[in-house]
Amino acid sequence: MKATEDEKAGNRYRIEALAKGLDVLRLFDETVTGLKLREISELTGIPMPTAFRVVATLEEEGFVERLEDGTVRPGVAVLTLGSAALRGSSLVQAAERPLRRLAEGTGETVNLGVLLGDHVLYLVRLRNSDLVTANVQVGSTLPAAYTSMGKLLLAYLPESERHEVLRDHDFAAAAGPNAVDSLDALDADCLAIRTEGYAVQDQEVAIGLRSVSVPVFGVGGTPVAAINIAVAANRHSADELRGPLLESLRATAQEISLRLSAG
Q1: Which residues, in sequence order, are CB contacts of 125 under 8 Å at separation 6+?
Q2: Packing angle of the helix pair 37-44, 16-25 (nearest 10 deg)
Q3: CATH of the domain at 181
Q4: Which domain covers residue 76, as residue numbers?
Q5: What does the DSSP 8-state code read for residue 220?
Q6: Tens of pLDDT along 77-128?
Q7: 172 and 70 share a domain?
Q8: Measured between alpha carbons, how far is residue 262 from residues 16, 91, 127, 182, 250 in Å?
Q9: Single pTM value for the model
C-alpha cells in the first residue's frame, strides 16, 4: 500500500532519534515507575545499543535518571514539563481561582479531573490536611469506575463508547468496599447520574472516603471535566453530600463553565 502525500511529508520531517526518546518516556506511568535497559529495549523494539544511547541522552538532559542497580526512571525534567503543561491548560487556568474559593469556603478537599481512558487524571487538587487518603496529587490517576469524577464523566459517554473504554477494566480489583463489581452495575449508576446531574462516591475508592462530583461544560454544552468535593466518611454521610456541599459545587462548576465559554 502506497503512502499518501501527507504521510510522505510527515515521514520527511520526522526525527527518528527524537521519536525513539519519546517512545522510551511513554513507557512510564502510574504503575510503571522504573525499568531496566533490557526491558526498555524489549518494550519499544529499539535494539539494545540504540536503547543505551537514547537512555544516555535522556539521562544527560535530565529526563531520566539511573539508579545504582541500573533501573531507569523518569527524571526531574519530565516533572517540570508536566507541571508546565498542566498549569498552562486553559481548563486549569479557568478552574483554579473558583476551586480555591470553594476549598476555602467549605474547608474540604476539592479536585478537578478529566477522563483518560478508563482512569481519571487529576489536574487540580486542593487538599484539606485532615483528609486521610492515598497519595493522590496533580498528575495522579485513579480508576474512573470507582471515583465520583470518573463515574460522572463515564455517565456522559454513549453506552457503546463507555463499554469500549472499560473493555479491559478488571472489576474484581476494586479497592473500596462499596465499589461496583460489574459493568451492568456501573451502567445502572451511570443512568442515575445522568438523570440527577451529579455523582456520589461512597467508600468506593477507599475506606473512609466519600465525594460528590458535577460536570464542567465546555463550548457546545459537552462535559470536558469534572470537579468534586472529597470528605472524610466519619464527618459527612453520603446524604449530607447532597445538601449545601453539592449546591456550592454546582455553583463553582457553573462559574468555571462560563469562564471556559468566555475564552
Answers
A1: 109, 110, 111, 112, 136, 137, 138, 140
A2: 110
A3: 3.30.450.40
A4: 5-80
A5: T
A6: 675 566 555 554 788 888 999 999 999 999 999 999 988 888 888 888 888 7
A7: no
A8: 40, 12, 28, 40, 18
A9: 0.70
